[in-house]
Hints:
By secondary structure, the protein is mainly alpha-helical. The protein has one domain (9-54). It contains three helices and no strands. It has helices at 9-22, 27-36, 43-54. Helix 2 crosses helix 3.
Amino acid sequence: MYLGKMMSPKDEFLESLKKLNKNTQTPKQWAKDILANPNYTLAIGIQFAKDALNNKGRAR
């Protein structure tokens, strides 16, 4: 990530997906991180995060 330039919401979402694939972080933790970030504004990412937290027992 280039520090002098803001990432677009789409790029931010894609970056978070890349991090999810690299990390051992659970989808639930990823969802909490997305919802806790006040700068995250991509609606589809927020909706995915809410769905991940609401559907606790559902397998993807």
